[in-house]
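We emphasize that the prediction below concerns an isolated chain of 98 residues; any contacts that depend on oligomerization or on bound cofactors are therefore not represented. The input was used exactly as deposited, without trimming of termini.
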Amino acid sequence: MPKKLNRYCSHCKKKTEQKVKQQSTGRPSTMKRGSKVRAMLRGLNRGIGNQGRFSRMKNQAKGNRKTTKKTAIVYTCTVCKKGKDQKKGKRTSKLVLE
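Result of the prediction step, given as a C-alpha cell string:
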C-alpha cells in the first residue's frame, strides 16, 4: 500500500493528498475487570492444570481459527491535518507501506 493517497477529505470538502498510517494497538489495560494480571495477584491463573475460565482458548474452534487480523488504517489529510479511520479493514497478515 502506498504511503500517500489522493482521497476525499470530508473537512476540506475536496480530494486531497492523505498520509496512510497503521493504527497502533496500544497496551492492554491491567485495570479491566477479570484481567489476568490482577487474577495472578489474587493467586489465580498460576501453576499447571485447569485454571477454569482462564484456561480456555480465545477462539473455541481450533480448526476454524482465523490466521489474519483486519487492518486498522488512519488517513491523515496533509492540508487540514485531520485524521480519518478506514471504513472496513481488509484481512492481511502484514500490512506493508511503500
